[in-house]
Amino acid sequence: MLASTPHRDIWRIAGPALIANSSGPMVAVIDTWAIGHLPDPALLGAIALAGFVFSYIYWAFGFLRMSTTGMVAQAHGSNDQTRINLITLRSVLLGIFIGIGVLILQLPVIQLAFIVFAPGEALAGHVQQYLDIRIWAVPIVLARIAVVGFLIGTQRARTALVLELVLNLTNAGLNLLFVVVLGWGVEGVALGSLIAEWLAGILAISILFSIRGKVLLVDLVQKQFWRLAAFKRLLVVNSYLFIRTLFLLGAFALVYRTSTQLGEVTLAANHVLLTFTTLIALGLDAMAYAAEAHVGDAIGQGNRTRLRQFVRLTTSWAILMSVVYAMIFAIGGNDIIAVLTDQQPVRAAASEQLVLFALLPVIAVWSYQLDGIFIGATKSADMMWTMMAAFAIFVAMLYWLTATYGNRGLWIAFLMFFAVRGIGLGIRYPILVRQVKSAGKF
Hints:
Layout: H1 5-36, H2 41-60, H3 63-77, H4 81-104, H5 106-117, H6 121-134, H7 138-153, H8 157-181, H9 185-212, H10 215-220, H11 232-261, H12 264-301, H13 304-340, H14 344-352, H15 354-376, H16 380-405, H17 407-434
Helix pairs in contact: 1-2, 1-8, 1-12, 2-6, 3-4, 3-7, 3-11, 3-12, 4-7, 6-9, 7-9, 8-9, 11-12, 11-16, 11-17, 12-13, 12-14, 12-15, 13-15, 15-17, 16-17
């Protein structure tokens, strides 16, 4: 049993976030199992590639959750209910507008995906079928992401967990029905995801109105709500986060591209190791969510003492998690690799990098945790510039290290990428604390 109220407050957010994060990969496993038992092997590759496209789209627009969480948490700390309503409504509407824009531009978006990922002839038709169906969920998904930001910002992580479980369990159930029972193949998986995402999105908006009440509708019809200037801060914060996310995606894309250049076995081995990063993110992201909510709340109160307290406590928990992850991969990494692949050359190639990979959690924890702190403080410009600097150093070192040390050099450069992000934000953290004033204004 947790000993103090602050610790319970932290785990009241981190616990549900950890469970919610864990449910997503389980759906991917079920999808893979369902498609993997069909006779055409191209179907499995098509699902993996098309699903990856949507992961990138949703990741790229993940700023809707992050900015909403930070600003709502600050308004929550200062008990400004009107500002909570306005921020949340504007974020939801922005998500819907962006989603509609993606639908309008879906032809060039899908064409760009084909150019970037270049699926072979055996995959192209199936990938097209999947994208044509699932893309119609984008507006409601982006609206749901904004609502989740509101829920985390107001410390309603259990409700966010319910949304995530509804999404993932419905998705898994429908995919089993459509693929295994009805035999609809790729179209079945896409349709199952489409229905589940619309159901979860409608539920999210319903929950938002049930929590905030009819006052949301009153704010929505106010003339001042629709003034472009009123959206200014939201747009500025989001623009910094969007650029930051593009550089983050670019770094991962370079890892995959460089792995491809090092050969098929190296690519497969690195894919296995990068799968582990998802497991690491489950815990570290959950604690970062807790940091977002409590840091924003403390800034809203203008309370530096509370800010430092929750930064210290959430970071301590995050470091503990990172050490546990490092020990798991250092001691049992080979066994985990063996579960994911039975190809001996791939196992050997992945095993060669385990020593370096075991360092990843304890190096990356600082970038994860400081991201959460700076999101709560809505200091997105610092996050953008730090990410750009880390990306520049990563690119500068990647090719030299890879040319000199091969795949080991790639992983050294990748570790440096996380380290520079953490160091950069760590340097900026004291400035953030000094800027906290009474009434939560910077």
